C-alpha cells in the first residue's frame, strides 16, 4: 500500500476543512480527487506531503508516517503550485537544481529534457527568460516536468490541467498513462475538469466540505454521474 490515511483532520478555527476517516491508495493506481472550491483538496495534499501539520490523524507512505520519516521523499514527487518553483532561475537552472537534489548529473537532466521537447512545445528551453517571466501555464509545465524528472513512484499534482493549453493537456494525459503502464506510477491528481479526470484516472474520490462523499472505480458512466452530481 503506497498511501494510507487514518482519521486525518485539519481544523481552522471552528471549521473542519479535512476530515477523512480512512483511505488507501495502492501501487499503480491513478486516482482523481474532485470537489468544488474550498472542498479541502489542496489542504489534504499539503498534509500528504508534510507541508502542513494535521490537527489529528496520520498519513502513512508505505507504512511510515510522513511526519516522522524522510524515506518517502525519495520516491514521491509533487507539484502543487508556483510556490514549488524558484522564480529567479531560468527553467534550465531550476531543472539542474532539482536534478542535483536527486543525484542527477547535468547530462542526465539534458537527456531528460530532450525527451520532453514535445511537452514543452518550444516555449520553455533556451528562452533566455526567468521562470517569473513565464505565463502561468508555462510555469505549471516547468513544475510538472520537474516533478516527473525525479522519476517518482508516487506523483501528486494539484490541478495539473488548469492553465495548460489543450495540446499540453492531452500530452500530459498521454505521459501519465504511459508512466502508469511502463513503471506502475501511482498518481494522485486533483482537478476541476471532470472530462480529464474521468479520462485519465481509474479511481475517483469526491470530496465535499472535507469529507469523502464518493470513492469509486471509473467506468463508462462515471463522467455522466459526476456531471449530474455537480449540477445539483
Ligand atoms: N491557512 C488557512 N487558514 C484558514 N482557513 C484555511 C487555510 N487554508 C485553507 N483554509 C480553508 O480550508 C478550506 C479548504 O481549502 P482548500 O484550498 O483545501 O480547498 P480546495 O478544495 O483545494 O479548493 P479549490 O478547488 O478552490 O482549490 C477553505 O474553506 C479554505 O478557506
UniProtKB/TrEMBL annotation:
InterPro entries xrefs: AAA+_ATPase, ABC_transporter-like_ATP-bd, ABC_transporter-like_CS, ABC_Transporter_VariousFunc, P-loop_NTPase
Keywords: ATP-binding, Nucleotide-binding, Transport
Gene3D superfamilies the UniProt entry points to: P-loop containing nucleotide triphosphate hydrolases
Domain ABC transporter: 3-229
A single GO molecular function term of this UniProt record: ATP binding
Keyword flag Ion transport: no
Pfam families: ABC_tran (PF00005)
TM ranges: none
Protein name: ABC transporter ATP-binding protein
